């Protein structure tokens, strides 16, 4: 990117020269390069605030950033906690975009320092150990920063991948800008076999293991010397490196240690932990060790002490010619800034210039605004995104607003389809933020249909848009919200039921997914008869899909495999199936229940399984994108929900030829007929469920009848073309 304009850049950094450390040097070099490219740069580092306790320190630094934000264009915070937290909070208040560069990992560092539990960065996030109150605060504040910043910049894909999974960060929010790789500098021939270690003397640096391994190595080669430096200015460290034999850094994990890059710049061989973001790039250039294996550390030291091996690795470093200049790093940041500038901002009185707006004067165009909460829309290959692309083919314009507490996003995913996230500070602001965005999109014009994916928060947003425009409101109901099981679940659900009863009469059109739901609405005074349009089941695709995972082969210990697939939440009443299994295995000990899904009830359900001594028969699996294989190789499918709008997984199981048992919810009584193509039991009836399961296990002919009739029933479901035609017709109200 060529920068031809003066951008006012604010860099927030915890330390800055004359402070010593990699972050200080990074801030200095980045600021100087920004300046060389014609930008105005202001550095904000901790000064007198350093002497204050952490909370007060953050508080004072917050105001320092706040007072310096007016007039700033690009704001860069060089860590997630010490400056990232106050800088992001200030930027949110001032409506500024902010790039946060992720350096180390303060949460992991705090944990290892407190407990002495020497675990790697990836292990820490994998096992999620118990945190102290202080660490819980750090976690909460880190999550705040990650959600509210505009872009996260990592120095390696390795750390980016760990954090994306651990903190559930959208990949679209993350960038990788590698560290500085410069030209080689002259070095000196070492006079002795002195290995240098440099850094902060903290537990994750694994200095104890290094000293022990080095002492053992020195017994076999008494010429070995270990030098440890903890507080050297950068230039002084470089002079030490030029004259040393090699460097060593056996930390538990290292993201992208500048110490190693400095060693490469003066052509010094290095020994580095294999738990690092540098491994893929440097695996053929340096020597890597297992930080937990002192024998491995010792052997690698002795290996490099051998003159022939030493010369080989000197040559490898000489052959390593990758360069990444400060000019390129600065331009990478400015490219991210340009991306942010190109995205739509909805703040104050500003209105966005939407690309489709060129044709807004044509009143015959079908323009759809959809409001919902499925964040998977922002995942490129997700099923819901593919579905929305198909819906987009039915309209001239399709705009989709997604409830989200992440930053505001806009994406154009096809010629006429636009996605937006609300970027709300709180879930309670979802409908109001969505209404604000929607009013900008609709602009008070004719021929807009606002379709909402629930009769609650999304419908409220749609109603607020309808009040300020001439748009029509179309409410879709996917769940049986008038079931007593729904409103008894929580006080919030009671409020939702009241809200739905208020909003439904305001809608010009209502779509429900089953006759059961339409019947439940008969006492609500609505304008028009609700349209019944079930959830689409691609029976033909399911029929043709090959089996990639065979549950019977995966779990050969079971003679009979039962499958459940759903979110692990209370409404799904998976407890019922677990309790029924307790009765089943006494008669059929080789029966297995595979529960596929994720959710907040997982730990509770797992505890229940263990308390009933069912761990050998009930297995939890994470959600799978290949449920069809599971349906096709299971012997029985269960759906035990207290309420459902339709029951998509039950319909999919039928299309795959899997016999099923379902509670009397959703499409039971419509698509699923008791004793014909499935078995229907009363909600919450554990004994009836156990009897039905035992009956299916004992009666293979019954299983075949249910399977054959199910396959025959799904032939009468709509094809995709028929479904899309009806879907478009449902919009024409």
From TrEMBL:
SUPFAM superfamilies in alphabetical order: UDP-Glycosyltransferase/glycogen phosphorylase
Keyword Transmembrane in annotation: yes
Residues of the signal peptide: none
Domain Glycosyl transferase family residues, every copy: 558-710
Origin species: Candidatus Portnoybacteria bacterium RBG_19FT_COMBO_36_7
Keywords: Membrane, Transmembrane, Transmembrane helix
Record-linked Gene3D superfamilies: Glycogen Phosphorylase B (3.40.50.2000)
Molecular function as annotated in GO: glycosyltransferase activity
Transmembrane segments: 59-78
UniProt protein name: Glycosyl transferase family 1 domain-containing protein
């Amino acid at each position: 990117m060529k920068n031809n304009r003066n951008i006012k850049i604010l860099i927030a950094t915890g330390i800055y020269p004359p402070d010593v450390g990699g972050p200080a040097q990074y801030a200095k070099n980045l600021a100087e390069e920004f300046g060389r490219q014609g930008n105005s740069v202001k550095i904000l580092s901790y000064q007198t605030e350093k002497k204050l306790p952490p909370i007060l320190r953050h508080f004072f630094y917050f105001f320092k950033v706040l007072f310096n934000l007016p007039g700033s264009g690009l704001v860069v915070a060089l860590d997630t906690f010490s400056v990232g937290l106050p800088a992001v909070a200030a930027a949110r208040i001032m409506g500024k975009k902010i790039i946060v560069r992720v350096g180390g990992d303060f949460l992991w560092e705090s944990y290892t320092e407190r407990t002495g539990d020497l675990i790697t960065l990836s292990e820490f996030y994998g096992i999620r150990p118990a945190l102290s109150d202080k660490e819980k605060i750090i976690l909460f504040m880190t999550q705040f920063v990650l959600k509210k910043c505009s872009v996260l910049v990592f120095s390696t894909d390795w750390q980016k991948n760990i954090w994306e999974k651990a903190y559930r960060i959208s990949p679209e929010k993350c960038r990788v800008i590698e560290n500085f790789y410069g030209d080689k500098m002259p070095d000196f021939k070492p006079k002795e076999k002195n290995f240098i270690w440099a850094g902060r003397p903290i537990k994750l640096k694994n200095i104890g293991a290094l000293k022990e391994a080095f002492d053992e190595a020195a017994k076999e080669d008494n010429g070995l010397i270990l030098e440890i430096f903890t507080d050297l200015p950068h230039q002084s460290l470089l002079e030490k490196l030029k004259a040393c034999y090699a460097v060593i850094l056996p930390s538990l994990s290292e993201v992208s240690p500048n110490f190693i890059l400095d060693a490469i710049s003066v052509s010094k061989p290095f020994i580095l932990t294999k738990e690092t973001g540098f491994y893929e790039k440097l695996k053929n250039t340096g020597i890597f060790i297992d930080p937990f294996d002192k024998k491995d550390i010792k052997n690698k030291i002795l290996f490099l002490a051998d003159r022939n091996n030493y010369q080989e690795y000197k040559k490898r470093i000489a052959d390593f010619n990758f360069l990444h200049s400060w000019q390129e790093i600065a331009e990478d940041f400015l490219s991210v800034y340009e991306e942010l500038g190109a995205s739509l901002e909805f703040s104050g009185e500003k209105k966005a210039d939407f690309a489709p707006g060129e044709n807004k004067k044509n009143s015959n165009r079908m323009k759809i605004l959809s409001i919902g909460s499925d964040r998977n829309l922002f995942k490129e290959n997700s099923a819901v995104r593919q579905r929305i692309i198909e819906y987009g083919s039915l309209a001239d314009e399709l705009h989709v607003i997604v409830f989200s507490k992440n930053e505001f996003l806009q994406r154009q995913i096809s010629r006429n389809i636009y996605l937006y996230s609300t970027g709300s500070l709180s879930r309670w602001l979802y409908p109001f933020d969505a209404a604000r965005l929607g009013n900008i999109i609709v602009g008070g014009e004719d021929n807009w249909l606002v379709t909402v994916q629930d009769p609650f928060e999304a419908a409220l947003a749609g109603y607020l848009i309808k009040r300020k425009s001439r748009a029509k409101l179309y409410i879709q109901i996917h769940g049986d919200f008038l079931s007593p099981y729904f409103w008894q679940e929580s006080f919030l659900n009671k409020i939702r039921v009241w809200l739905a009863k208020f909003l439904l009469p305001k809608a010009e059109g209502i779509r429900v997914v089953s006759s059961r739901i339409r019947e439940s609405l008969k006492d609500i005074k609505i304008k028009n008869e609700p349209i019944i349009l079930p959830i689409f089941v691609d029976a033909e695709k399911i029929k043709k899909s090959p089996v990639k995972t065979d549950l019977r082969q995966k779990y050969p210990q079971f003679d009979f495999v039962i499958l459940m697939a759903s979110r692990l939440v209370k409404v799904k009443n998976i407890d019922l199936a677990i309790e029924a299994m307790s009765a089943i295995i006494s008669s059929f000990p080789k029966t297995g229940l595979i529960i596929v899904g994720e959710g907040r009830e997982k730990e509770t359900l797992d505890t229940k399984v263990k308390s009933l001594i069912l761990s050998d028969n009930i297995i939890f699996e994470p959600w799978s994108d290949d449920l069809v294989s599971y349906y096709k190789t299971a012997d029985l499918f269960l759906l035990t929900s207290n309420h459902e709008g339709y029951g998509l997984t039950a319909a999919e199981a039928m299309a795959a030829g899997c016999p099923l048992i379902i509670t009397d919810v959703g499409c039971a009584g419509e698509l699923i007929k008791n004793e014909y193509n499935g078995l229907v039991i009363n909600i919450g009836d554990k004994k009836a469920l156990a009897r039905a399961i035992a009956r299916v296990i004992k009666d293979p002919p019954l299983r075949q009848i249910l399977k054959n009739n199910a396959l025959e029933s799904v032939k009468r479901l709509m094809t995709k073309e028929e479904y899309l035609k009806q879907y478009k017709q449902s919009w024409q109200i």
